Amino acid sequence: xxxxxxxxxxxxxxxxxxxxxxxxxxxxxxxxxxxxxxxxxxxxxxxxxxxxxxxxxxxxxxxxxxxxxxxxxxxxxxxxxxxxxxxxxxxxxxxxxxxxxxxxxxxxxxxxxxxxxxxxxxxxxxxxxxxxxxxxxxxxxxxxxxxxxxxxxxxxxxxxxxxxxxxxxxxxxxxxxxxxxxxxxxxxxxxxxxxxxxxxxxxxxxxxxxxxxxxxxxxxxxxxxxxxxxxxxxxxxxxxxxxxxxxxxxxxxxxxxxxxxxxxxxxxxxxxxxxxxxxxxxxxxxxxxxxxxxxxxxxxxxxxxxxxxxxxxxxxxxxxxxxxxxxxxxxxxxxxxxxxxxxxxxxxxxxxxxxxxxxxxxxxxxxxxxxxxxxxxxxxxxxxxxxxxxxxxxxxxxxxxxxxxxxxxxxxxxxxxxxxxxxxxxxxxxxxxxxxxxxxxxxxxxxxxxxxxxxxxxxxxxxxxxxxxxxxxxxxxxxx
Length: 480
Prior knowledge:
About 75% of the residues lie in helices and about 5% in strands. By secondary structure, the protein is mainly alpha-helical.
């Protein structure tokens, strides 16, 4: 027993969430859909306890399962963000599932299994462990995207996500096989040793290129973004909110770890590719969103643009750059969660949940507090000071400039200016267009999330130190 316990201790949070998810699944099978509310609250409790286990657990770079699983401060930071996103997604789903008549106990359990896959991804220190976590996450997300099975758009989004996601997973697997074939190992530390001790073959670089392509798909970066607008629009809105937060943070986590752990010696090679992807993502995110009429599609293109901004920090390949990405992800989580919470309040008695941007007309007159919150989120997403979004962009721009990536920084600034147009257009529609039919009162869960996220977004500048310090420590643990 003394030998067994230390072996699994780094993975206690993941083991706890796995056992809890299976127990809740058995409970749901016996109790049926009437247990959905109970299982939802139990899932929130499980995720909360998991976050406590991560905070009190080791963060010293301990490894287990034949060095395939690592726990460090970098992983702990991102796991907490993922768990916050997962808890929030369950909160967002309470009223939606009931009103859409899809209140099934499998929903929160699928989120638990997806979250388990994400936590495994973040702690992966081996290409095989990475793929296992990725597939556990992806299989759950495919089902969640098509969860509203009586809706043609939801079914279509699930099918598109499945087909393209399977393609991306195959690309990652093929890239991993090439890396293994030329290095003789799938372990990150051993791959790094191989690069320092041997000449790099062209086939190995090709494998790295395939890995970058597959991971770029998972973060919805251009030119691997094609699934994002359709899946965001078709999936149930709480699922879309979940997609835009937790899986994206997990994908960024493994993107950063893969590039800067086993392939750190190739930074001069792969950073050029990341610069190209970052620039394309910012440009497309800025211009493609301008003509959108559906709020979910607009935020899909917005997320692509934000991925481009975050990738600037990864392209820098420095501790400062990674710190910038980690700050960006934390702030993006808050302001994006707030925006999706407001979108979920867009419900009318006769129409149900509406999604057109024009439906926001006159919100400033009908519901001034809700319009004020949405204004805060839109201004923050646009990067207007002194809101939190400004600081997110500031730190990634700073890292790019310090590495001499002036062209990329200029593209980022111009993209941010163009992108501000469609954020400000939403504010204009809310305050200056003819008032439309008012929405139903928001649920208590949505009001709570909107209040918390808007206050954090608005007053982040008063004391940003805790996030800055944690991000710096997390980045330093990955790049000592």
